[in-house]
Specification:
alpha/beta; TIM Barrel; elongated; five-stranded mixed β-sheet; 383 residues
Length: 383
């Protein structure tokens, strides 16, 4: 499974880039020490340790980081299921609909991301870039059914050995839009259905071949931009970071090891200029954005019932177990403990979390209900 390269010049958590320590500051440490130790408590845009081979690249990396970090660019980091969009506020406002592919192929902080992109006037498109077993596809959720299937597919990708992306897409196709320039994957999926299947055309990624692929399989092409870099000038520093991350010399980086120079966050006008031979691809991209759900709402809690109990039965069972636990811990239930119990149980009842607490209680119970019960490692907060 190969993940797409990260943008090294952007802080992983967003926020404000700190300036690189000037020569003479923190005189007790060398610049190499700063990188090895993460520059103390400062938030830096790059803090991995260096190996012997990486030291060969240090002088160039140091200069590039100085140059990049002096910009003091304010960035806004947003985690979508699709990945992080880390752009300047000005560039964010350019896009009425915007998606960025998930680099770690997992769902992280989605609700907070949706709130942020809406505030920026951006239509969120939920999806993921799956790259596993020699197959690659961009998968977008058209609706809630698609979102559920996307979650199942990504869970299988991480949990099942021998994960087969074409087979998974065949099983979880409902509600999903599949975009790919992988001829093997397209050939496999088209045998079952060509609905919501598109051929991806990306600048810097064999666009003429992709257009020929669309004609061969009689599938609509769609324009995408595999944005990894904020600006074209970031490609040089990106290559240095990839060399350090992969423990390779710059001269030995392959095309698969790094992003293309065209993998830049492009403005709408620039993208339009890149598709004079296939305006249909741009039209299809806009149509997909319109087709995908924009008003995602994850406020409602959906949790499976505990042992088929209804809401009242679950809160009664939770209260019984809570009082038993209080007696084991305190020996007796004082007035103060009684007030705390009533307050917390009332809050759990109002929020509808009784089923959740009962399930978690069984997971962390030191005495499992049956001999073959599998125990799970849990954090102290759950105990």
């Amino acid at each position: 499974m190969r993940l797409r390269p990260e943008v090294g010049a952007v802080p992983a958590g967003g926020g404000v880039r700190n300036t690189y320590p000037a020569h003479g500051q923190d005189s007790g440490r060398t610049h190499l020490d700063h990188i090895l130790h993460g520059w103390g408590n400062r938030k830096t845009c790059f803090t991995p340790a260096l190996t012997d081979m990486d030291i060969l690249l240090f002088a160039a990396a140091e200069e590039l980081f100085e140059r990049t970090c002096r910009r003091r660019v304010r960035v806004k980091g947003m985690r979508l299921v699709l990945g992080r969009i880390t752009d300047t506020d000005r560039q964010l406002r350019l896009f009425p609909a915007r998606g960025a592919w998930e680099k770690t192929q997992k769902i992280t902080a989605l609700q907070g991301a949706l709130d942020q992109v809406r505030e920026a006037g951006i239509q969120p498109i939920i999806g993921a870039e799956a790259d596993a077993g020699g197959y690659r596809a961009v998968i977008l959720a058209r609706n809630t059914d698609g979102y559920s299937n996307l979650c199942r597919l990504l869970s299988d990708l991480h949990c099942k050995k021998g994960f087969h992306l074409p087979g998974a897409l065949e099983n979880y196709r409902e509600g999903l839009i599949v975009i790919s320039d992988d001829s093997k994957l397209i050939s496999y999926l088209r045998k079952y259905s060509s609905g919501n299947l598109f051929v991806e055309m990306s600048p810097g990624h064999l666009m003429r071949r992709a257009l020929a692929l669309a004609g061969r399989f009689r599938l609509p092409p769609v324009a995408t931009s595999r944005a990894v870099l904020l600006n074209e000038s970031d490609h040089e520093i990106h290559r240095v970071l990839r060399a350090i991350a992969l423990n390779k010399k710059l001269s030995r980086l392959s095309a698969d090891d790094q992003a293309s120079e065209m993998d830049v966050l492009l403005s709408p006008d620039r993208i339009a200029d890149l598709y004079p031979h296939c305006p249909e691809a741009l039209e299809n991209a806009a149509a997909i954005a319109q087709e995908c759900v924009a008003d995602w709402d994850f406020q409602g809690t959906i949790f499976p019932p505990f042992r088929d109990m209804d809401r009242d039965e679950a809160i009664c069972e939770l209260e019984k177990r809570t009082r038993q636990g209080a007696l084991r811990r305190y020996g007796t239930i004082s007035d103060n403990i009684e007030r705390r119990l009533k307050k917390e149980l009332s809050l759990i009842r109002d929020k509808g979390f009784a089923h959740y607490f009962l399930v978690v209680e069984e997971l962390v119970d030191p005495e499992p209900p049956c001999a073959n019960w599998q125990k799970y490692t849990v954090s102290p907060r759950m105990r």
